[in-house]
Design goal:
Oligomer: single chain
Largest sheet: 5 strands, parallel
Structural class: alpha/beta
Radius of gyration: 25 Å
Number of helices: 10
Length: 261
Amino acid sequence: MLSPHPAQETLAVAAFLGVHEFYRVGGAQAVAALAYGTESIPRVNKIVGPGNRFVAAAKKLVAFDCAIDFLAGPTEAVFISDKGDPVLIGCDLVAQAEHDPDALCILITSSRELAKAVQTEVQRHTNTNPIAAESLTHRGAILLVTSLDQAVEAANRIAPEHLTLPAILAPAVQNAGSIFLDEFTPQSAGDYISGPNHVLPTGAMARVRGGLNVLDYVRIISCQEISQEGICRIAPSAIVLAKAEGLRGHAESLRVRCSHA
């Protein structure tokens, strides 16, 4: 594990999980150290985990030399609501915005009244949160749509890391890293405690994959064995394909086995 400023609680959890190596380093330089190795940090086979834009850029740069999970960062959060509590929505927008000045936080609503109320709550909560204030000023948005169906359509095009919306709309979601249903499922619970892994795809990568999971730590190696009877049964179809591609050697390797079977 790597973290530039790990809390005592983080170190304790790592110990409980059986982590034997913990390096006090972060940022793009940490990605480079893992990908290529240093005098004190060994080279690894795969780098997983989220980060800011510099970490994401570094992972992208080393991806051909060291496997990565996917690009995970900066934070993205989309909220869809037309009748929600503006206090709760405003708090959640600020919570995700404080991750990073580059965080993308968006409310999509069909209610102009809700939009104004949420804007007021956000301004109130960012007075003492400079990172969230910077993020929401430069990267925050409230989108007004004609219906919640249109809101979901917009969210599918964004393919956000986090998506909060009414449970009744969930079946229409096609692209999202993690979905949070209704008002009492804050995205911050997903950050820490509710269960699903919270290393999630950003930059529209949710269109092609989900969050970090056990398969990211598994290599699948296929193993094949064909009997004499089996090769005679399947070889003719394979020979047709090989000849269609102009690969006569492939066709011959199949044909000669049939003649020896």
